[in-house]
């Protein structure tokens, strides 16, 4: 299941993309438009800034803005930054320990195929696609 944090991160990114002509957007404006508490939004935005998806400016006239064009952001990268790996099962996460059963696990191919579907779906949609409803 995709967490609230990841869903809100996508909403924030779309909001900033839709309002990018305004320059730096204050956190309170994003929070008001998206109906997300400023306190929770601060946590999400910190993650997005640390992941180099957004840049921030403090002080008067400050706020947040995208670092790239909306067509250069992939939905999967935003979700994984906020959420972590999109692996459907723990044994397929990038940092998973080797499983002694993997060589003869009858369900592993199922989980791998499902994981590929999830990955391919989210990594085939850009922020611009979301804005335009093209997905």
Structure explained in plain terms:
- The chain has 135 residues and is mostly helical.
- The protein has a single domain, classed as Arc Repressor Mutant, subunit A, CATH 1.10.10.10.
- It has helices spanning 4-18, 27-34, 38-50, 75-83, 108-122, 127-132; strands at residues 54-57, 63-66.
- Strands 1-2 form a two-stranded antiparallel ribbon.
- Strand 1 and strand 2 form a beta hairpin.
- The mean pLDDT is 94.
Q: Could you provide a short overview of the structure?
A:
The protein is mainly α. The protein is built from six helices and two strands, in the order αααββααα.
CATH class: Mainly Alpha
Strands side by side in the biggest sheet: 1-2
Query: Any idea what the CATH superfamily is called?
Result: Winged helix-like DNA-binding domain superfamily/Winged helix DNA-binding domain
Major sheet description: 2 strands, antiparallel
Give the SSE map.
Layout: H1 4-18, H2 27-34, H3 38-50, E1 54-57, E2 63-66, H4 75-83, H5 108-122, H6 127-132
Antiparallel strand pairs: 1-2
List keywords for this structure.
mainly alpha, 135 residues, two-stranded antiparallel ribbon, 2 strands
